[in-house]
């Protein structure tokens, strides 16, 4: 019996799978997307959008707040007058924070979506899901025109979080409720 089993397993090991033919995807790869389209689309989701030249100047509105700043947030963003909360933070600490400041991995103009991958200045997912306010800094060079273009820029093995506006859901009567599964307020600084 063992020899029959071994014979079958050996045939499986020796089997040659023909190379798959390349799959041609006819997706729209690039387009007229850019800063203006991204700003318009992310605002359609009820996010607050600002185009700025200086991140520290734009952050002055956070004075007096307790804001989570993940590892990798540039030192020049950590302005005086804000209590910056740094990791490690418990779930309770995150829940008591006034908000979180992050960067992003990429942004998508066609859909008004921000993508986080847990990389530099983004932190772990809980940082952007528990505080009621998320301020995300998006550099112009991070804006991709389309989803396929954005996916080409991302590492597929990283934990990806796609954010299209503040967290929201609707009940059966289509009454919109914000902040159920994440921040009630999303503010985006385009630099």
UniProtKB/TrEMBL annotation:
Domain of life of the source: Bacteria
Entry-linked InterPro entries: FTHF_cligase-like_sf, LUD_dom, NagB/RpiA_transferase-like
Domain LUD, chain residue ranges per copy: 92-191
SUPFAM superfamilies for the chain: NagB/RpiA/CoA transferase-like
PANTHER family (alphabetical): LACTATE UTILIZATION PROTEIN C (PTHR43682)
Name of this chain's protein: L-lactate dehydrogenase complex protein LldG
Species the sequence originates in: Lentzea albidocapillata
